[in-house]
Model the fold of this input.
Amino acid sequence: METQEFIPAGKSRDTIIETVKLTKTFGDVTAVDEISFALLRGELFGFLGPNGAGKTTTINMLTGLSRPDSGKIRIAGQECTKNPKGIQHLIGIVPDESNLYPELSGFENLCFCASLYGLRKKERRERAAELLEIFGLKKEADRKFGGYSRGMKRKLTIAAGIIHRPQILFLDEPTTGIDVASARQIRQLIADLNRTGTTIFLTTHYIEEAERLCERIAFIVKGRIVRTDSVKNLLQPILGRQVMLVSVSNAESDLIRGLAAAFPSYAFESISPEQIRVESPEPIRLASLVRYIDTRNVVVKEARLYGPSLEDVFVRVTGIEADALKKEAEKKGATV
Ligand SMILES: Nc1ncnc2c1ncn2[C@@H]1O[C@H](COP(=O)(O)OP(=O)(O)OP(=O)(O)O)[C@@H](O)[C@H]1O
Done:
């Protein structure tokens, strides 16, 4: 069957989201390019990629906000590529920009969202009060949403997204642009929601966040998924090893061959025209490396030890520096 290849091996086949060759273009830009993946019920799945990678476009197609040009989407067993209405009650959406009303209070906003899902008046009020309590916003219940801090706004937007107890929650960069304490609380809330059975599709710029929260991760770059695997499998090959990323003026193959001959116990890989990845089972002797590279008339600009972390895997798989991702998140006003 066509979908089998992208369902994680060894798991039960209770798949809640499946996409097959999903594609979306805007003029000349292919925002999402034939992506196929599957989420199992109860999973916390991370979609990790830099600015413009296609994360929001993917969420918009999965949630029915935008139509794919081609490909298929199946959610909870329903083919919903062309008819997303049938699954709306099953899903919750937390967009990167809040969609709540600034002139309404937190409580009123939640009651209004609940009414859209057909909850009765008493139930709406009870659910709104319950969520304000869970999200630590009880004291702010009667304040206008427009006056909330960014962190409080994000929390209320998440509360609104789960007002109808959806089976699946789509979170688009939930911790970007907010203060450290709120980001920590939100990560805890996401983990709690997942523990109580909600399937979560999370997009993020933050590698550490994905590593901490997610069971499986897909790396998306320029509209294409370059790798999907469990965090455990992604980290396995480098556990117990030292990894260093050396930025140089020129990482040509001749230099890589020379390094491999001079330091036979290290593994060298050119991951971009100016970056060399060094992996070793023992501590890396940086001074010797720099001396050798200098003899080849190549300038060492920076050397950074990664340890066994998902950052290294990301850099290796995508060729994008982990720092570049962080800088993009910071440009959006984020703090981790
Ligand atoms: N409505 C649109 N019209 C034209 N181009 C678009 C539109 N929406 C997205 N794009 C383009 O599609 C590509 C993917 O954008 P998308 O917003 O999905 O990326 P992203 O990974 O969510 O980025 P970010 O992290 O900045 O939110 C980008 O090149 C973007 O400029």
About this structure: The pocket of adenosine-5'-triphosphate is lined by residues 26, 29, 31, 49, 51-57 (CB under 6 Å). Residues 1-6 have pLDDT under 50 and may be disordered. Residues 23 and 33 are 5 Å apart (CA to CA).
